[in-house]
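User: Please predict structures.

Assistant: First:
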Amino acid sequence: MEKNVEMSKNAQFRAIQPSPSILSFVEDNLLGRRRPIELRRAGYNIELSAPLDNIPFSTSSERERIEENIFRNKLEFFAAAKVSSSFPAPDLPEIAFAGRSNVGKSSMLNALTRQWGVVRTSDKPGLTQTINFFKLGTKLCLVDLPGYGFAYAKEEVKDAWEELVKEYVSTRVSLKRVCLLIDTKWGVKPRDHELISLMERSQTKYQVVLTKTDTVFPIDVARRAMQIEEVIFYLCG
């Protein structure tokens, strides 16, 4: 029965018809698995072994202005908190990165700032066990939240992480936006639903970011984006 239910979910996913705008976005940004020749034409150096070093600089003057003024500042770790009383003073606007364990939060922070290694990454889920605060120059604070869901930790420890994340997301006065990372292959899970509902109730600004798009075909990236739009519309309604 479980196998039939899973097959039904897969069939439903395959039946999703993405909108033309989503399909165009996927193609314009080369999301999904791509042939080496496509990546080379877009400016990627396919000979590099480290994917995070393989990001062409933007050709958009507006985006480049933002990157130069904000994300090219030095990223420095300055605080970690296991309890809310350890949160640093809310002196800078904060952008937080949330999601399931091993979804790619730390990798995204490194990629945004192109300062590899400042935020620790690992193939072992649950490495981030505290809320970690990083100053990006004097203008912004980036916050790496503990992953929820699967992790190498006791249940009571994972529960404590999740409660800490919920408290931070719903009460932090300097929090300007939460980037909720979703694995493209697996989509929105129950814990993601819970966090989205919490952010809606607490009126916390957030946006969904799909990660690991290179593990699926382009059409499935578009389907997942369409599916997530429908999930958020349902939760918000």
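Second:
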Amino acid sequence: MEDHNSANLSEPASPAASVASAEIAAEFAALSTEEKEQRRAEWSQELARVEEEINTLRTVLASKTRHASDLKRKLGITVWKELTDDMNQGVKNIKESTVYQRTESVLKTTGEKTASVFGSITSGITSKLSQMKNSESMRSIEASVGSAYENVKTKVTSRSGSVSSFPDAMDENNTSSGLNSPTDSLTK
């Protein structure tokens, strides 16, 4: 078992460690059998002490953690409050970072430019519609539609004699023919 542990200890973690391991292995090989056993015994004792210290520290840490939890509970500090505070602090740290501030500045500038572009597009469309509305072609179309409406209105009024508008004429026509809605004709 000791050979297995010493093999793990001699495995290099880096090139510098491999040089050091090679030097230690050379020194160890130069020792007599009695000195090798003595060294292994010393290392085993030291390892046992270090492991005992680690276990003691773990026990102390667990005890301190329980004590801190009890104090937090007595103070009304819950896990949720701690999490909320941590999140708020994290957000604050992010907002204070230069990367966030630069990103925020870029987004703000982009938003302003986008609004400007959409404003220009809207303004252009409004201008074009206004020009179209005031054009001779549009006035001619408005006049034609207006006169066609008046002609239909006049013809409907002259047939019934009492109707004053086109929608009223349509309602009167539907009522006199027995149709109250578009679907009535489908059911008859």
